[in-house]
Specification:
784 residues, 45% helix, Multidrug efflux transporter AcrB TolC docking domain, DN and DC subdomains, six-stranded antiparallel sheet, alpha+beta
């Protein structure tokens, strides 16, 4: 068993490929029509596609292709790349180069590490993590990816002052051109003489704030205009739209995702050891803490099943000894248990199965089955020995008499369990290891019963003519039981009609109860963790979402069973937040995780202005934000008509008490500012749409222009207007562009700004316009 991997379940999905197409400045409607649809048309003919979904967001198209299990991931990736290269000519020229990658079925981090920064800033802590900690964690055996949530990597921020730029008759594009031309690192070659050689290194790149401030952008009236004259230069965060917290304080959270073939227990143990080593060398005040580790539940689950196996073996041994009342005879079926389990583990190792709760559960069930064959063979051989037949001859004769029956019984059980491995869909993938492990164990037990059992009987069993008092006492009980069974059998044969009616009634009741009893794929388990999910209204800021996350942190503090809490705000978007509550160990609390979740539900629902709910972690490795109930509504109708249909559907679902936390991914109310250009005026002054668009992108969105180096690491140089000049819609009109005659023209004269709404994203399912409606199951209800 030590050579086999460990996990909770052994569900294996088909490979999934994603394509990310960045297109700066494009709205979801433009992305859908000019990027998503042309790509979907090209990708539609790929072999082995199970499901293809897409999401068209502002400036981005994300296409996910899920293949069936028979499709090779590498071959699928190669075909996708080929199709994308063919579709490139149908895409806009301005689109960035697409990103194509493979996603593992279980791509969620298995362990989170919180970094308390002490007196260091978030930028300093992020830089330290990126330089030293992230590298050491990423090389751990089995680690696929190391993510840092709330990361604040340093960047050289150029905050330009639009009024000062206009005063010098300059634009932000002039600043970008100066940065690109003066921040370069070009190898200069070498100097060679007869005996010596020198490499010539030209120090032409910029690395410090004073160096950037002294860049000459232009000469105005004979005087140089430097960057410091029109902008503020400082080291600031490259991305400040994601926050993370730990136990109510600002922190950074590191998540480690495992490779598909990696053992989560081994990866977690390696990560914990590495955290201990890192804590010894961290700067004073900085500390790493394990905030959430999924392997704790995995290890507890496996240990629990191990204990169940031991208990099952002990109970089987006691029952066997009770009925056989002979220590030598009891040793024969007892030995078959470990031998059969060892054989089953060998077969599991050959098939590459892991030690998980389902394979161990198969062994628990098999313990009662593996001794059946051995007991039948033993009893028949023992009968011959009691009749005076020599032990060797009794073993041969007894096993020969019932050999066919043992084979038939073994193959019957195998044919019952093995077909579970060929079930399709998620159920088949879930039970394949369970079914084959159970079938293999029973098959090995049949072989052992016909080989090892007769051999042991010929060596251990003896003919006894005298028995002790315990034997005679139990023999009296068994005789009484036999007489009672004989009488009940006689009565049943005499009243066949009654027996048939009772049997039919039981069968009918079973069918009725089968429909009445609740059913679901997997039950909710007490994993010792609760996820809090928050979605703010469209257009809400990061600060708005953070306020509600702070309220959830207070809810967590009021729970006596709280151990630690971890919060992430702004991921995957600024309107989203996730709060993880890790509970105390199982033995240190009286309430189960599900009870605490029910207590938190009304508190979350009472939060004003957001959709918030607590949820138990899914059992099969899905995302914490996924819900057990999902509906996909597909249509070729426009999205406004689809939204009306979804509204009717949601109203119908709200009338059903078994569903809660209803939500949809179609949101057509994202606030936006629509900039309408006056092309006639732009033509009159000689300004182009391209210049206006790039100016707005740099001033408002921030453009990564070049990079700078600091102690061997490369960081972004970002140009953007100062925060106070991009706080209101009217700030757009105050930006200047250069006219044909060299004068500065305010955008207020060339464009109009109007408020409006737009969709957050436009989704497709198998190339059709689609809307997903999801929900959680209310307490007291089940999926089935």
């Amino acid at each position: 068993m030590k050579n086999q991997g460990s996990s909770v379940t052994a569900i294996k999905h088909g490979s999934t490929l994603f394509r990310d197409e960045p297109y700066k400045g494009a709205s979801p409607e433009v992305i859908e029509s000019q990027v998503t649809k042309p790509l979907e048309n090209q990708l539609a003919g790929i072999e082995g596609v199970d499901v293809m979904t897409s999401r068209s967001r502002s400036e981005r198209s994300l296409i996910n292709i899920k293949f069936n299990l028979s499709r090779s991931p590498d071959a699928a990736a190669a075909e996708v790349r080929d199709k994308v290269s063919r579709a490139r000519r149908f895409l806009p020229d301005e689109i960035d180069e697409p990103i194509i990658g493979k996603v593992e079925a279980d791509s969620q981090p298995i362990i989170y590490i919180a970094v308390e920064s002490g007196h260091y800033s978030a930028i300093q802590t992020s830089d330290y993590i990126n330089r030293y900690i992230k590298t050491r964690l990423s090389v751990l055996p089995g680690a696929a990816e190391v993510r840092v949530f709330g990361e604040r990597l340093p960047s050289m921020r150029i905050y330009v002052d639009r009024d000062k730029l206009a005063g010098y008759n300059l634009t932000v594009l002039d600043v970008e051109a100066a940065l690109r031309s003066q921040n370069v690192e070009i190898p200069a070659g070498r100097i060679e003489s007869r005996a010596r050689e020198f490499s010539v290194v030209s120090s032409t790149d910029l690395q410090t704030i004073p160096q950037f401030e002294n860049i000459i952008i232009a000469n105005v009236k004979g005087y140089p205009v430097r960057l410091r004259d029109v902008a503020r230069v400082q080291i600031d965060a490259a991305n400040d739209r994601v926050l993370s917290r730990f136990n109510g304080k600002s922190a950074l959270n590191i998540g480690i995702t495992r490779q598909s073939t990696a053992n989560p227990l081994e990866l977690s143990a390696a990560a914990r050891q590495e955290v201990e080593r890192l804590n010894e060398s961290l700067p004073a005040g900085m500390k790493l803490n394990i905030s959430y580790d999924t392997s704790v539940f995995i290890e507890r689950s496996i240990d629990s099943v191990y204990h169940t196996i031991v208990e099952a073996i002990v109970l089987v041994v006691l029952v066997i000894f009770f009925f056989l009342r002979n220590l030598r005879a009891s040793l024969v079926p007892i030995v078959t248990i470990p031998v059969s389990l060892i054989g089953a583990c060998a077969i599991m190792y050959m098939f590459g199965f892991s030690i998980n709760t389902l394979t161990l559960l198969a062994m628990v069930l098999a313990i009662g089955l593996v001794v059946d064959d051995a007991i039948v063979v033993l009893e028949n051989i023992f009968r011959h020995i009691e009749n005076g037949v020599p032990r060797r001859q009794a073993a041969i004769q007894g096993s020969r008499e019932i050999g066919f029956a043992v084979v038939a019984m073994t193959m019957t059980l195998v044919t019952v369990y093995a077909p579970l491995a060929f079930a399709t869909g998620r159920t088949g993938r879930l039970f394949i290891e369970f079914a084959l492990t159970l079938a293999a164990t029973v098959l090995v037990s049949g072989v052992v019963a016909l080989t090892l059992t007769p051999m042991m009987c010929s060596l251990l069993l003896r003919h006894q003519t005298r028995h002790n008092r315990a034997y005679n006492l139990i023999e009296g009980w068994l005789e009484a039981l036999s007489r009672g069974y004989r009488r009940s059998l006689g009565w049943s044969l005499a009243h066949r009609g009654v027996v048939i009616v009772v049997g039919l009634a039981v069968a009918a009741a079973s069918g009725v109860l089968f429909k009445v009893v609740k059913s679901e794929l997997t039950p909710i388990e007490d994993r010792g963790v609760i996820f809090g999910i928050v979605s703010s209204p469209e257009g809400a800021t990061l600060g708005y979402t953070l306020e509600n996350m702070l309220a959830i942190e207070k809810f967590y503090e009021s729970i006596p069973e709280t151990s630690v809490s971890q919060t992430t705000v702004g991921f995957p978007t600024v309107t989203d937040g996730t709060a993880i509550l890790r509970l105390k160990p199982w033995e240190d609390r009286a309430r189960r995780q599900q009870e605490i979740t029910r207590e938190l539900q009304p508190k979350f629902s009472a939060l004003p202005g957001v959709r918030a709910f607590p949820t138990n972690p899914p059992s099969l490795g899905q995302s914490s934000r996924s819900k057990p109930v999902e509906f996909i509504i597909m249509s070729q109708a426009p999205y406004p008509e689809l939204a009306k249909l979804v509204g009717v559907f949601l109203n119908a679902l709200r009338d059903y008490p078994g569903l809660q936390n209803l939500d949809t991914d179609l949101r057509l109310n994202t606030p936006e500012l629509r900039v309408h250009v006056d092309r006639d005026k732009m033509s009159d002054v000689g300004a182009s749409v391209d210049v206006v668009g790039r100016t707005l992108e740099s001033m408002l969105g921030g453009r990564q222009v070049t990079r700078y180096k600091d102690e061997g690491e490369q960081y972004d140089v970002i140009v953007q207007v100062t925060p106070r000049d991009r706080a209101t819609p009217t700030d757009i009109s105050g930006i200047y562009v250069r006219a044909r005659d060299g004068s500065m023209v305010q955008l207020d004269n060339l464009l109009a700004v109007r408020e409006g709404v737009s969709p957050q994203s436009l989704n497709h399912f198998n190339r059709l316009r689609a809307v997903k409606v999801d929900a959680s199951v209310a307490p007291g209800y089940a999926l089935g």
